[in-house]
Amino acid sequence: MHKEEHEVAVLGAPHSTILPRSTMINIQSETSVPDHIVWSLFNTIFLNWCCLGFIAFAYSVKSRDRKMVGDVTGAQAYASTAKCLNITALIVGILMTIGFILLLVFGSVAIYHVMLQIVQEKQRY
């Protein structure tokens, strides 16, 4: 045996210079786009001053429809509009509710004072 044949026998077959092929699989993750439909429904039922809750609900439904079709960009645009409308509806609803309660309280106090004056004037005669 020659020296070269001995090395081949000891080391085994020569290694290939070809690199193993690799396969790349791109898995698209499910992009979660919140459609804010529950929040819109809450604003529609409870805080529907100026119909902002109903408009937000309509945009939430459009966002859900776009998401079902696979249009993530359209779904995000409608969801963003629904979110802005929900925030506005919530703020306006809270302010209007507080204003209504204050008007009711101060109006009741004013009516009480007017009625008290009327009763006192009738007692004088």
Automatic annotation (TrEMBL):
GO biological process: defense response to virus; host-mediated suppression of symbiont invasion; negative regulation of viral genome replication; response to interferon-alpha; response to interferon-beta; response to type II interferon; type I interferon-mediated signaling pathway
Keyword terms: Membrane, Transmembrane, Transmembrane helix
GO CC terms: plasma membrane
TM segment ranges: 37-59, 89-115
Main location: membrane
Organism superkingdom: Eukaryota
Pfam families recorded: CD225
Compartmental location: Membrane
Family: Belongs to the CD225/Dispanin family.
Annotated protein name in UniProt: Interferon-induced transmembrane protein 1
